[in-house]
Design brief:
alpha/beta, 39% helix, 10 helices, 10 strands, two-stranded antiparallel ribbon, 8-stranded parallel β-sheet, Arginase, Chain A
């Protein structure tokens, strides 16, 4: 690995553990596993740890309606599930405000001092719609962070979503908005059922929504090819002022909630590609916000791998063979997106 030191911080608060979900896949042990692993490897000692403040209601309203925010608060007080997948306990509303605040703090950190930041938050956010929470998500942390960055003068925001599930909430938040380029790789068909090729945005936002729906069983080669062949050229044209990552790690082989075959090393390569985009377009400013990832050991190792790249260690380049099925999907994406972006033929 080559090394070029960069300033990286993590955003974390022990109150994230107060979102009690029992034996639900999205449980507090996810963060406990990450923190324990980072302590064990010594990487935690090399990072600045920042405690976030809770997002204000006004900041949540960058994305969500006041009626929905009030519903989330009331359901949390009564410990009523938002939907069959989204468990709420008495502290969940307050923790969700703190999770959104963590994403905001991560943006503030890179705009003030750091090159990169990673918000280790829960609950996750990318399924949360403007009027509805779902898929373990209460408020859309990454979307709120994007709007916050724009409030601070970063006009063009790139959101890269490598969670195995399509970020339907993030897509909806910016579907008609040309100031945010949303790029998602995800298993398809799979939950939540959105994210097909032809979902490209509407109105002025047409073309600023790039979905790469990958077949079950896709390994590192397919994700890396999607990033290199589709994300990189589109991002180069878009020229973002900041890069945000919905960093879910449930595409890992044997994660349990999906059927992809990504390796921990594969995520380090994706992180390296994203970092190179940020370096070229916006002084290396990149913010990651935790989404999914449910195998505790794989999750912790994957977060460690991404942080290692953010801190300046580049993964070894390897050659990969992309399966014909995946190649066909990538070509279909390019065929549709060529109306908006330039790709090599």
């Amino acid at each position: 690995m080559s090394s070029e030191s960069t300033r990286t911080c993590i955003i974390y608060h022990p109150d994230y553990l107060k979102h009690e979900t029992g034996t639900h896949p999205e449980r507090k042990e996810r963060l406990l596993s990450i923190i324990s692993h980072l302590k064990g490897t010594g990487i935690l000692d090399k990072l600045e740890l920042i405690k976030p403040e809770s997002a204000t209601i006004e900041e949540i309203q960058y994305v969500h309606s006041r009626d929905y925010i009030d519903k989330a608060r009331k359901y949390s007080e009564l410990e009523i599930h938002l939907d069959p997948d989204t468990v709420l306990s008495r502290d969940s509303y307050d923790v969700a405000l703190l999770a959104a605040g963590g994403a905001i703090t991560a943006v503030d950190a890179v705009l003030a001092t750091f090159d990169s930041s990673f918000a280790l938050v829960r609950p996750p956010g990318h399924h949360a719609m403007p009027e509805r929470g779902m898929g373990f998500c209460i408020f859309n942390n990454i979307a709120i962070a994007a709007r916050h960055a724009q409030k601070l003068g970063k006009k063009r925001v790139l959101i890269v979503d490598w969670d195995v599930h399509h970020g339907n909430g993030t897509q909806e938040a910016f579907y008609d908005d040309p100031s945010v380029l949303y790029f998602s790789t995800h298993q398809y068909p799979h939950y939540p059922g959105t994210g097909w090729f032809d979902e490209v945005g509407i109105g002025e936002g047409e073309g600023y929504n790039i979905n790469v729906p990958l077949p079950a069983g896709t390994d590192d080669s397919g994700f890396i090819a999607a990033f290199e062949e589709i994300l990189v050229p589109a991002a180069r044209e878009f020229r973002p002022d900041i890069v945000l990552v919905s960093a879910g790690f449930d595409a890992c082989n044997k994660d349990g909630l999906a059927y992809m075959r990504m390796s921990v090393e594969g995520f380090s390569i994706l992180a390296s590609i994203v970092k190179s985009i940020a370096k070229e377009s916006c002084g290396g400013k990149v913010v990651a916000v935790l989404e999914g990832g449910y195998d505790l050991k794989l999750l912790a190792r994957s977060v460690d791998a991404v942080l290692d790249v953010f801190m300046g260690n580049e993964p070894e380049k390897k050659s990969y063979d992309v399966s014909p099925h995946v190649k066909a999907r990538l070509e279909e994406v390019k065929k549709i997106q060529r109306k908006f972006w330039h790709f090599e033929k």
